[in-house]
Amino acid sequence: MVAKFCYHTVFLRHPLDLWYDYNTKKLNEGSDRMRQFLNRSEMKPVIMLVALEIIALSINLFFAPHGVAAGGATGIAILVQELANVPVGLTTLAVNAVMLVLAWFLLDRATTKRILLGSVTLPILLAVTPQIMIVQDRLLAIIVGSVVFAIGVAMLYRIDASSGGTTVPPLIFKKYFGLKPAIGLLGIDLIVASFNLPVAGTEAFILAIFSIVLTSIVMNYVETGLDRKKAVYIMSTARGDAVKQNIQADLAHGMTIQHVTGGFSNDQREMLMVVVEQTDFKRLVDTVHAADPEAFMLVTEATEVHGGSFV
After folding, report:
1. Could you report the per-residue pLDDT of 109-139, keeping only the tens digit for each?
2. Does 84 reside within a domain?
3. Where does the UniProt annotation locate this protein (predicted)?
């Protein structure tokens, strides 16, 4: 059994798999240290200022110079700049002021206070940050701008802060109509993006939609980290013991056994839960099928795993 374990876990593993495991482990450790750093109360004002400046840089270096409004108060400001040459910072301040008034009367005071600092600081940073076209290619500028913007917003979310603006209406929709904030925010962003059509043309509209999608994807990865794992739930009718033995022998992997009841048959069964690295997922499936080709497997994405040992 020991020889088999060594053969499968060491000598058959591709060097790239070992490199991936090492680096994802380091990334995970770095992510945990960063999370602890961001959660320190004395650092939150500094982190908020840095995050807002990152957002301001994304707008003034990538979006505004190319006239692409990808939603939000800054998107409205870019449209106004294209039409009337009004500075982005000034329009953003005006929009944020209106949103603060709405929040004051329609939302609770705690929410208004939470968005107040960001609503005032972001327009100031937009005003003092130079607006320069550093990337000539429009598509490349929007790609880079979306990634930079997503990092800034994700940092704000991490410390429970906000840049204000059009994040207010979705909170109002949720309070009075029960609409999910994510849906409300997406709807507002799409409405703002649609105004690219008459103001800046079809290409700007398509780039704005692309930016909204890309920003959402990047934010998801920034918030949950790159060290994702697979959580696999396994049920075997007749070969459960063989499945467990194969997993322990071929992957040297632990597992959790849950006792479940079939909803139709009312039969009592064991369900295994195994959390594996992305690189080990295919091996796990092959190992289970080798023991029981009819085994039932449910696979989910585990974006965060804390504690324990899974390799």
Report:
1. 888 888 898 899 999 999 999 999 999 999 9
2. yes
3. Cell membrane
